Amino acid sequence: MDADLARNGTDAARQFAGIVGESHLLTGERIGPDYRHDEALVGEPVAPRFVARPETADQVAALLGAATRLQIPVTGRGSGTGLSAAARPCPDGLLVSFEKMNRILEIDTDNQVAVVQPGVTLADLDAATAAEGLMYTVFPGELSASVGGNVGTNAGGMRAVKYGVTRHNVLGLQAALPTGELIRTGGKVTKLSTGYDLTQLIIGSEGTLALATEVTVRLYPRLAHAATLLVPFADLPAVMRAVPAVVRSGVDPNILEYIDNLTLAALSYSQNLNLGIPDSIRDAAEAYLVIGVEDRDHGRLDDGVTMLGELLESLGALDLYVLEGNSAHALIEAREKAFWTAKATGADDVIDTVVPRAQMHQFITRAKDLALAANGGVVGCGHAGDGNVHLAVFCADDDVRHGLLHDIFATAMELGGAISGEHGLGRAKVQHFLDLEDPVKIALMRQIKNVFDPAGILNPGVLLDGEATR
After folding, report:
1. Which of 110, 163, 190, 399 is deepest in the core (most CB within 10 A)?
2. What DSSP string runs through 39-92?
3. Is-contact 50 16, C-beta < 8 A?
4. pTM, two decimal places
5. What is the pLDDT of residues 368-394, one digit of tens each?
6. How far lies 390's CA from each of 76, 276, 335, 412, 422, in Å?
7. Could you tell me the CA-to-CA distances from 54 to 46, 61, 208, 212, 216 in Å, in that order?
């Protein structure tokens, strides 16, 4: 090891340990394998040089200030459930793990907000808000995910069709800057027209501008009655024609998903689902709609289900299955585990491209044609209500797959969409973004990055520089 590098590392270790304490700074063999990766399917695990586990916002700010002075790259980590390698550390860098900052600071029932530290998991927040008859409505499919991770990627999930994504549900932040300072943005108010909206700028920035140290989230009433409809159609165009009709119906679904037949078969097998679909329907169906509805009143819920049944029959549905209780929960849980099913079946990558929902069929058809031409394949499901298409990509050759993804992302952008709807770009998709996005916009983003982080320590290789991880 270079002597200067060794001395710098010793000095850094001493400064970081002075901030968080010796027991909360990990180096060498004390850095376990979980700190070396997130859940992205591409790229190799990377061991950071330091892992700090702060307990307070002041400690986070002090860590960033020290890292800036020492010119050490910093990556923030919540639960490590991201899918784009944004939480994968730098080899000579500092990983700031928020596992110790996992307290729910306040549940304010009058203002219907919760104030939490970034390491709070969605499971813990859901349990705490349930006791008050409220809920945080961002469910990106993995309840072990952290609220801070939601902020970093602007996470969405199935309920976004009704409640929106993270940026619609975070009202305020406390955040640590690379300068070692703490700022507060927003608050418990639901409207704000006073200067630039720094809350929204930080949300979705994937740890490249600041690290959230406290998050104020919006809560909604937890409705008592719910049902899930599973609706088979003979082909994907029929599914996509049904989606806007369901959105316009006035029933206001909280879940509106499509699942292709291969994905539903894989989910049914891997999750041991018994949905009661006869073989004749299963053989005839190319894709399914999954529709969730909820209400305070069971009678009104039944009326909504009846209305949807009549509407979907008029739109060519092959049948309609109304699931309640355990069977409904099992289907939704299986859908939320679609990534793990894709991983288990050998997918080489998973993408979350978004297009206007009216263009979903056109996009999916072109993506399948592109994959076939590359001797690969794509299957999947997605948030039909907001145009977010999740595709498992099967194409083993790294270079061929890189070209295929470039073409798929280019197609989405031509149709008015974007590369990622909710997983973020991370390190996995950054080169596609730099190749395809308007250079004027990228230049403006670089200027914003430079204002927040002039030393460039926060998550280098994510969003605005670096080669694609393959």
Report:
1. 163
2. S-SSS-----SEEE--SSHHHHHHHHHHHHHHT--EEEESSS--SSSTTPPPTT
3. yes
4. 0.94
5. 999 999 999 999 899 999 999 999 999
6. 25, 25, 11, 12, 10
7. 21, 10, 19, 13, 20
